[in-house]
Amino acid sequence: MRKHRLQHSSPRHNSRRQAARAAAPGPTPSLNLGDLAERAGNNIDKHTNMLFGLAAGLAGAPSIGTGLGRAFAGASAGGQLDTKQNH
Q: What is the pTM (predicted TM-score) of this model?
């Protein structure tokens, strides 16, 4: 005769099961190319001054290090201006 092993449900196991159920991914919304392009265009419109600051810092720099330093400084100033203009 076989003995059946009782399964005990401890609080630790229950919390793991609940966490696994909560973390289970649901259906993902589909993105088409038009939506993606529209979102990218909206973000570019909102951050034009920051992007121009990045480009201006990189353009004509004698080295990549100097260009990145100038680009980040320009992006910071442009980002602040974008924030003032968009809000």
A: 0.56
CB 55 within 8 A of CB 73: no
Instruction: Write the CB contacts of 61 (distance below 8 Å, at least 6 apart in sequence).
Output: 67, 70
Give how far the C-alpha of residue 45 lies from the chain's centroid of Cα atoms, to the nearest Å. 18
54, exposed or middle or buried, with CB in 10 Å at 0-12, 13-18, 19+?
A: buried
Among 56, 52, 61, which Cα is nearest to 81's? 52
CA distance 32 to 39: 11
* Cβ atoms of residues 56 and 73 within 8 Å: no
pLDDT digits 0-9 by tens, 26-50: 666 676 888 888 888 888 889 999 9
